[in-house]
Write a structure and sequence with these properties.
Layout (H helix, E strand, L loop, with lengths): L8 E6 L7 H14 L3 E5 L2 H7 L2 E4 L26 H13 L4 E6 L1 H12 L4 E5 L15 H22 L2 E6 L6 H10 L3 E3 L7 H14 L5 E6 L5 H12 L3 E5 L11 H19 L5 E6 L2 E6 H6 L6 H11 L1
Parallel strand pairs: 1-2, 1-4, 4-5, 5-10, 6-8, 6-9, 7-8
Antiparallel strand pairs: 2-3, 10-11
Length: 326
């Protein structure tokens, strides 16, 4: 499976956490693959399905009516076996058995590292960033991010209504174990008084208690606190707020609600364009790449270069959120 090998058959899989728009990306890989004359095979249950040989050919009809569906019809699963040298070797063997000349992987950072393992064994790969956390360093945007934010925003708007009726504080935990992009941007979009993210260590008295007491002194009667799951526990924070301020506080954990739902226009469009770009890379013999969105354009990068990239939330972004929360 060297770079000189002619690509005839392409495998496509989704790995890690599901994200709205993954089906649109699969659909784009299948249809653009067929357009360029390839056969495309769906690998069910991610890398777990790859080493087990859970593989079936897809056609244009296989991906009909999938564009608007959340989740991934190929399913996804964690694979302890694939994370071993023996598991990777077994996956490579299955690529040979099913004549897969290349594999397109859709997922997050862990998915790309799995793809790199395949690439180092001679299997050409292309990665597409799909994760609601938007924490792929090489890309400004990841599939599923917009839908997850809109889902969280709609839920928080409804929680604000009841918080206002009862003059209480609503502490809402959103997803983001290591990244606070959802929390920060949703807090700005919903007018939250406080946001806590894992990228910045917070001082509870200064960043939470003081902000809420200042708001109360200015006439506020209800409050929204948004916390990324990696920055604290909503139940614990609500109890601390009530004890410190006397303001009745209630926790809400949105959890996997944010993963589901029909993808937004942006996620459908971005996933579709990234899927086409992935197949174009293979068609042009540019292997072992990661598709990314940078500075308003869809590009592709060397996979090892992509995995070395880093990004974080700036203090300037947090300062602007505080200005709007006054």
């Amino acid at each position: 499976m060297s770079d000189e090998k002619v690509i005839r058959n392409i495998g496509v899989l989704t790995s890690g956490g599901d994200a709205p728009g993954m089906n649109a990306a699969i659909r784009a890989v299948v249809r653009s693959g067929i357009y360029y004359g390839y056969r495309v095979f769906g690998v069910r249950r991610g890398y777990h399905g790859l080493w087990r040989g859970d593989i079936e050919e897809l056609n244009g009809r296989s991906v009909s009516e999938t564009l608007q569906r959340g989740g991934t019809f190929l399913m996804t699963a964690r694979s302890k076996t694939f994370n071993t040298p023996e598991g990777v070797d077994k996956a490579v063997e299955m690529c040979r058995i099913f004549n897969l000349d290349a594999v397109v992987t859709i997922g997050g950072d862990g998915t790309f590292r799995g793809a790199l393992d395949l690439a180092r064994k001679g299997v050409p790969v292309i990665g597409i960033p799909g994760t609601i956390d938007n924490d792929i360093a090489c890309s400004d945007y990841t599939i599923g991010y917009d839908t997850a934010m809109n889902t969280a925003m709609e839920a928080i708007d409804k929680l604000r209504d009841t918080a206002s009726s009862h003059e209480r504080c609503s502490v809402i935990e959103v997803m983001g174990r290591h990244a606070g992009y959802i929390a920060l941007n949703v807090s700005i979009s919903t007018g939250a008084e406080v946001v806590l993210i894992p990228e910045r260590k917070s001082d509870f008295e200064r960043d939470v208690v003081k902000m809420m007491l200042q708001g109360r002194n200015q006439g506020k009667r209800h409050y929204i606190v948004i916390v990324a799951e990696g920055a604290g526990d909503a139940t614990d924070i609500a109890q601390k707020i009530e004890a410190a301020t006397g303001i009745e506080s209630r926790p809400t954990i949105l959890g996997h609600l944010q993963r589901g739902g029909s993808p937004t226009v942006r996620d459908r469009h971005m996933a579709s364009m990234m899927g086409v770009r992935a197949v174009e890379c293979l068609h042009e013999a540019r292997y072992n790449r990661v598709v990314a969105y940078k500075h308003g354009e869809i590009i592709d990068l060397d996979i090892e270069e992509a995995l070395k990239a880093s990004k974080t939330i700036s203090q300037e972004e947090l300062d602007r959120a505080k200005i709007l929360a006054l």
